Every structure is written in C-alpha cells, then in structure tokens.
Amino acid sequence: MRHSRLTLWLLGGFTLLVYAYKILPVFVVVALAFNPPEFGSFPIVGFTTRWFGGLLDNPAVVTAVKTSLRLAVATAAIATVLGVAAAYALVRYPFRGRAAVQLLLTMPILVPHLIVGVGLLLAFRILGLSRSFTLMLLGHVALTMPFVILTTQHRLQAIPLYLEEASRTLGANGWQTFREVTLPLAAPAIVTGFVFAFMSSFDEVTATLFWRPANFDTVPIYVLSELQNSVSQELNALAAALVGFSVGVPVLTMLLLHLWTSRRRRPARAPEATPAWQPATEGDAR
C-alpha cells in the first residue's frame, strides 16, 4: 500500500513538473507583455496595456492577422465539408480498401509537417505551379482535414444506424435523412472538427514557410521573422494576444456546445391539462 501511494505521489509530481515546464514560459511572455519598460525584462515594475494598443497601429501586424484569419476560415470550411463527407463514407459505406483509404486520409497527422511542406512544394513545381495563396490553402486543408475526419467519424459510429433506417422507411431520401437525422446528431463533433482545423491552420508555421509567396506573412511567420532581430514589447503583446485567442476560442466553443446540447436534451414541457372534475365556467355553460 505504501509503495503504491509513493508511486502515485512520484507520478503526480513528475506530471506537475512536465506541465510547469510547458506552461510557465507562456506565463512569462504574457506577464512581460504588461510590463511598462520598453525592453521587456524582469522584475515587473508596473502594469500597462499600451503595447497592445500599438499592435493596431502596426500595418504589418494588421495585415498578418487578416491573412491568417482569411486562410484559417477558408481552410476550416473546406476541410470540414470534405472531412464530413469522407467520414460519412468511411462509416456508412463499407467498401474494399476502406482501411487503406482511412490511413491515407489521416496520414498528415503522422508525417512531420516539414516533410509535407517540402513534398507538396515539389509536387506543385513538377506541375509548373508557383507558391501562392492557393497552394497554402490546399496544404492547410491537407494538414487539418484529418482532425475533422477523426472527430466526425467517432461521433457517427456512436449514432445508431436504425435511426437512419427508420427515416428512410418513413419515406425520406438519403439527403433528407442526413440533413434531418444524422447532421443534428453529429453537429457537436463537426463544430469541434471545424475549430480544430481553424486553430491548426491559424497556428501552422513549419509547412507554411515552404508554401507562402514572397511578402506574404501569417501571424506565426511574422513573429518568427521578428524574433530574428529582437524581442520587443509589441512582440510580447502579440504573443500574449495569440495565447488568449488560442485558449479563448476552444473554451468558448466548448461552452456554447455544452449549452446547445443541454437545451436539446431538455424535455419539452407539456401543457397543463384541465382536471376532469373542474366545474364548467359560465361561458362554457352558454
């Protein structure tokens, strides 16, 4: 008993050390973003938010944010549509070679993004295509679509097949069954996959370095290029804003999905019935 308790304490302490090693540097950057001196350093001598206001006056930062948002939204939308279709086909339609297709679609998660970036760039050069926004979009879709496939596929496997069969028995065609039965039940997983794809595209930097055209920066690439010169307070503020955005979007999505699913599960309140013994009113008598 003592040996098992000691093992649990050691395992818990080691886990805390790992989390501290990974999270403490993030808190350091966030804390420095609110430090008044022009060059961020410890100790913290005060509190200010003027470095965040300077981000809005920096045209390079504004352009990089717009580019990242446009790329991430387009990537998430395309990856969600293709990923949901692929997941539905893998779950509902057994065919020869399904395991190989599944492995091929989810392989970008296993392969390092450096290899994917170089491989797709070489493939486009063989086809005579140069680096462009379209190349970036296609590459990001290939990298993020496995997240949509895996989350949606797991949810579709939990939906009883007899619900779709009952819908078709009652006269609905395949599209009506998917729209009225399958899609509402799988909506939380689809939204989760969309958020995964959005955040993965927004934070992607390794493969994007091979695909971006000249003078075309996303937020992570802008931060990486600025780090080659110096670490300014505006850069710390931008990093803190990215931390808040990367944490806030998934948390807000989780809360909204929890609220939405709890409302759907809440049974509808039946209207109160009039007791049989209640006497008729004067209007009813007339």
Automatic annotation (TrEMBL):
Residues 65-256 form the ABC transmembrane type-1 domain. Signal peptide: none annotated. PROSITE patterns: ABC_TM1. The chain crosses the membrane at residues 71-91, 103-127, 133-152, 181-202, 237-260. One of its GO terms (biological process) is transmembrane transport. It is a multi-pass membrane protein. Its main location: membrane. It comes from the Bacteria. It is found in: Cell inner membrane; Cell membrane. One of its GO terms (cellular component) is plasma membrane. Keywords: Cell inner membrane, Cell membrane, Membrane, Transmembrane, Transmembrane helix, Transport. InterPro entries: MetI-like, MetI-like_sf. PANTHER family: INNER MEMBRANE ABC TRANSPORTER PERMEASE PROTEIN YDCV. Belongs to the binding-protein-dependent transport system permease family. This is ABC transporter permease.
